[in-house]
Amino acid sequence: MTVRPKFLAAESDLRSHFRKRDQVIRGLLISVLARQHAVLIGEPGDGKTRLSTDFFRLFEGARFAHFGLHKGSTSDDLFGGPDIVALQNGVDKRQTKGRLLEVEFALLDEPDKASEGTLNSLLVPLSDFVFETAPLPLRCAIYAGNNLPHELRGQRNGKSLPVRQGEDSLLAFFDRFAAKFVVESIDPESNDWTEIVFDRVTDAPYSATLSLDDLDAARSEVASVRIPDSVRQFVREFAVALRRGNGNPNSTVKVSPRRWSSVPVLLRAVAWLDGRDEVSTRDAAILADVLWTTPDQRKTIRDALLDCGSPIVRDCASTVDKVAEAVLALRERRLSTAATGTGFHIHTSASEVNPRQAIGVAEVLLRYIDKSGTDLGNAIAPDLSSDDREAVETSLQTLRDFRRQALEEFRKRVA
Fold first, then answer.
1. Contact 305, 284 (CB under 8 A)
2. Residue 97 vs residues 79, 136, 287, 292: alpha-carbon distances, Å
3. What is the rounded distance in angstroms from the CA atom of residue 18 to the CA atom of residue 12?
4. What is the pLDDT of residues 123-143, one digit of tens each?
5. pLDDT in tens, 265-312
6. CA distance 125 to 350
7. Which of 300, 312, 260 lies closest to 158 in space, CA to CA?
8. Which residues is 64 bridged to in the sheet?
9. Cα distance between residue 65 and residue 210, in whole Å
10. How crowded is the C-beta side of 168, counted as CA atoms within 13 Å?
């Protein structure tokens, strides 16, 4: 019997403790299923450490270590220093309790502050799960940082910058982490901010737990997920598009062979969590959180993914993105009526909105969502491919969810 329901229950439990972190939580699950490491970048106080710690502690009986790294950190802090008593007896041994040699999960806090030598000592252990000749029990490590350090900006605006002394070590270290997520701060002008501050999330103990045996069983199931030829061809075309800058030579994204080698197992993990035994081209959306070196490259990667997909998939993604942006603007009171094709205009801040133009804008958005859903529904035909049909059906469900949110906002305003 599959262990997938246990992982979904754990995901749901974790979401109930952390508001507006669904994408990050799903990404961490995908990472641990693929035995890949993850990055969380965000401002201080955004909950990166607590989320990472709670995630790892879902695995009952697993050993966990939290390393706060700084300029004075050494490899002994990570792997254990010499055991003096053992040395006096002629035995070369390390004190490994609570170090990477004896834990399944590790949180590396602000590793960019560590020295070049300390970073170098982590390269092989993170990529090969071996320290010297000893195998590591490590299943997943999380890099948590407050801001993306300037040393990682080796590709600014698509152009390679000279690498200064020490920066090549940090770039190599960063490349050991597959999934990378920017933990966004919540804008105080948004309704989400009010909910997070005033509506208490549950502080009840976690009811769903996992074991390392569950993780091993899940990884075995993930390994059996098929990758059809159509997906292999899609990923290859996507890789070529990235190398060529997706039509713009100034927007090339360099991806290491190490990163590409992690793609198959990540795609399998995405499909497995969705309850499928075969990867779809839509699962490649995870690559926007895998292949970037700087956050600005995420848009280039997403655009390349869309351009390599079918016209229907592109239309679905474009429609959902437009509606998502409009619903967010409605909740943040940045939406006004306008004489445009959509009937509304999105402003950068609420202060720009003329109160008169905000009257009735929720109804205008609801009509736009309904029309968008009708247009997508008309694309469903008997000869539609399974991937295209799945894209349309998923997009329609997403539009229904957005319509519910817009309707709730409309009711608040007329109450």
1. yes
2. 9, 13, 36, 35
3. 10
4. 999 999 999 888 999 999 999
5. 999 999 999 999 999 888 898 999 999 887 778 888 888 888 887 777
6. 49
7. 300
8. 105
9. 18
10. 4
**Considering the entire predicted model, what is its pTM?**
0.76
CA distance 242 to 289: 14
C-alpha 90, offset from chain centre: 48
Distance CA 361, CA 342 (A): 11
| Cβ neighbour number for residue 81 with a 10 Å cutoff | 13
Query: Which residues, in sequence order, are CB contacts of 204 under 8 Å at separation 6+?
Result: none
- CB burial class (10 A; 0-12, 13-18, 19+) of residue 95? middle
Q: What span, in angstroms and rounded, lies between the C-alpha atoms of 28 and 190? A: 26
Looking at this protein, which amino acid is placed at residue 379?
A
106: which 2 tokens? 């590790």
Q: b vs e for 31-67, b when ≥16 Cβ sit within 10 Å of the residue's Cβ? A: bbbbbbbbbbbbeeebbbbebbebbbebbeebbbbbb
C-alpha distances (whole Å) from 3 to each of 57, 72, 208, 214 are: 18, 43, 13, 7
> How far is it, in rounded angstroms, from Cα 156 to Cα 251?
9
- Report how far residue 175's alpha carbon sits from residue 179's, in angstroms, rounded to the nearest whole number: 10
Helix H or strand E encompassing 140? strand 140-145
